[in-house]
Design brief:
By secondary structure, the protein is mostly helical. The protein contains 15 helices and two strands. It has a two-stranded parallel ribbon. Helix 2 runs antiparallel to helix 3, helix 3 (70-96) crosses helix 9 (231-257) and helix 9 (231-257) packs across helix 14. The longest helix is centred in the middle third of the chain and has 28 residues, at 199-226. The chain starts with 16 loop residues before the first helix and ends with a helix.
Length: 380
Amino acid sequence: MTVIQRKAVNPIAHLTAEDIAVIGKELDAIRDRVLADRGERDAAYIRKVISTHRKLELGSRVVLLFSLFPPAWVVGTAGLAVAKILDNMEIGHNVLHGQWDWMRDPKIHSTTWDWDHVSPPDQWQHSHNQLHHRYTNVVGKDNDLGYGIMRVDEDQPWHPVYLGQPLWNFINACFFQYGIAAYDLELGHNLKNGRHRDPEFRARARAVGRKIRRQVLKDYVLHPLLSGPSFLTTLAATFTANLIRNLWSHSVIMCGHFPNGVETFEKTSIEGETRGEWYLRQMLGSANISGSRLLHLMTGNLSFQIEHHLFPDLPSNRYQEIAPEVRALFDRYGLKYTSGSLPKQVASAWWKVIRLSLPNRKPRGRVDDRPTPALAATGA
């Protein structure tokens, strides 16, 4: 496994093949223990979050009936924004991961759940669950890394087009749900390669179009019409709530894979990858956000991105519980557990976006790229 970011010291050079195998076994033991312990308290948690979300959304929509009055507009908009964040982050993202399939509740299942988002669930599951989590931070394989529109590492060749990446990253943040839908559809790749006439692509594009129409009809026609005289103010409130949700989601996801301290990897790093090496890549390719229980809830517990990437199928309410154990494992094997406050991680991620939009400031020093014995056997 070769870390693509050039550093004076390889952060895993001190690990032996036996170390990596033991790390894998220890993490498997944590996962197995939580899987065996899932039960009523976990089911009660997700049902409570879903109930809270629905009550909050309904209450906010009722308040927006009176949104001609500024206080009602502010309260309704804030409530609707929080409801949309809960729907996307703690509920939709995690249900669609299959974290709650063990409950065998057809109403809370990865195969039946729909969310307040323009990306069809099945397309999101393919790009996120099957591709992103499999190829975490592998440049050229994990399109979540920069969403295919940004330079994400100093070893990537610089081109003047990257000068604009801070601007288009901001635009992407404002309309993030549409950016995700285009990304799930692999729109740029398919258009560039002339595959837009492919029947499979056209079917997927029609599914996205239907989902967008439903969302637009609900948010910008039906609910504003129900507000009667408050049509325009409700319309503005819904647009604002969607904007807040998009900016928040984008920030949380940026913090998980883009701050300083997070590693990226070459394509060769996954050739012959063992279970322990896969775990190691998740450990080095993710970052956490420190904060309160409320912050963890509002991030969909992606503030524990490291734990989520290690165990994407565990119930999200368990990540905070196992985080100290995971961090102790990092410390025991001399690995950096990247974590920081939300402002710190957002600033770090945006600084990297800006820095990598420019040419490298000076030639990079040679890295100590000697692989560990376990990784040398893979040819990485």
